[in-house]
Amino acid sequence: MKVLVVDDSRNDRKVIRYNFEWHGCHVVEAANGKQGLEVAAAEVPDLIISDCLMPVMDGFRFLHELKKFKELNAIPFIFYSAIYTGSREAELAAALGATAFLEKPMRPDELWDEVGRLLAAELASEREAQAPPMHEEEFLRDYSQVVATRLEEKVRELTEENESLLRLNGELERRVVERTSQLESANRDLEMFSYSVSHDLRAPLRHLEGFSQALTEEYAAKLNTIGNDYLERIRRSSRRMADMLDAILELSRSVRGKLAREDVDLSALAREVAGQLARSQPERKVDLRVAEGMAARGDARLLKVVLEHLVGNAWKFTQPQEHAVVEIFPTEWEGHSAFAVRDNGVGFDMAYAEKLFSPFQRMHGQDEFPGRGIGLAIVKRIVSRHGGKVKIEAEVGRGATVTFTV
Fold it and tell me: From CA 301, how far away is CA 66, in angstroms rounded?
């Protein structure tokens, strides 16, 4: 048996095809009623299974046009639809001469059994004469009623969905207001914490430093070497704690405040930062290379902080090199414009790279390369605020490259 399947859903056609071919049928396909007419005229199938709602020409018009051809109007025609499933549609299908009107979805075995039952019933009726084609005026009248009814139902569905969306939008707006209030409260708490760090926690540190200094000045002669060493350790620890508090405050400031986006000349900022470093250590001979034309849109103040930390790190970790090179240049990362700071310094083992973006994580000892271990954490937060990303690549003894987008 040759079966024509007409459906705009490729997946639905495929399911029916595999089902009927498994039972030994030859299946041909069409994606709409217009194509179905062409295939039917060329193939003259023994059965047509058609969807109702399709582009170009739907199932009802397809059947109406099919009945105009003498050699095709006797072909059993079964509607198989998930959209047009009401009584009006079934009545129109019967008036057009359809064998049956089946509702999607059906299991493949159910569809096969139902089609077989319908064809057997049709053969048993032994109809000698087919009903004449429906007049065009009658078809248009009934077809228009079906379409109008379906449109009314669709309008009702869309209206209900729109009302539901409006309610959901109102709920989302309320949640946004609540969330904004929570964030503002969290920011106020953060500011209070920063104030506490900068004032309340510094007081005991000043006392610790002051009294240890007094002990050193007034009682150093009465203490042995071990006692003086203990005092010096206390003073170093208090200074280290003060530096860490400064770092926490700096990290806090990097994620507070509103971004003032503008066009930023990164080349000019990089030259400014490089000049400051060169003036701070005039005895060092570092080959500083800043590419021209680097520009980005962001907060100029924060982007300068990013360059200060990245170029500062490159300057610091190239110190052991006889011929130190620090480069700032544009590049590309995952199809986006990016910027990089590269040096030929000491580098590090990439197995620990991700740790460097956390506060107070360092690869080198304080005695080897002084620092607070906060620079890359600040860089990551500023870059993230700009909607960008940052990564670092390095090799022991061959330097490092930090790449970022904004």
Answer: 74
262-404, which class in CATH?
alpha beta
Among 59, 61, 73, which residue's Cα sits nearest to residue 6? 59
CATH tag for 2-134 (out of 3.20.20.370, 3.40.190.80, 3.40.50.2300, 3.20.20.140): 3.40.50.2300
* pTM to 2 decimal places: 0.49
Torsion of CA 16, 20, 22, 27, to 10 degrees: -90
Encode pLDDT of 130-184 as tens digits: 555 666 666 666 666 666 666 666 667 777 888 888 888 888 888 888 887 887 7
The answer to whether 78 and 47 are in contact (CB under 8 A) is yes
153: number of Cβ within 10 Å: 11
Query: Rounded distance, CA 301 to CA 230, Å?
Result: 42
Given CATH 1.10.390, say whether it is the number of domain 176-254. no
Residues 6+ apart with CB under 8 A from 166: none
pLDDT tens by residue, 69-104:
988 988 999 999 887 666 777 788 888 888 888 988
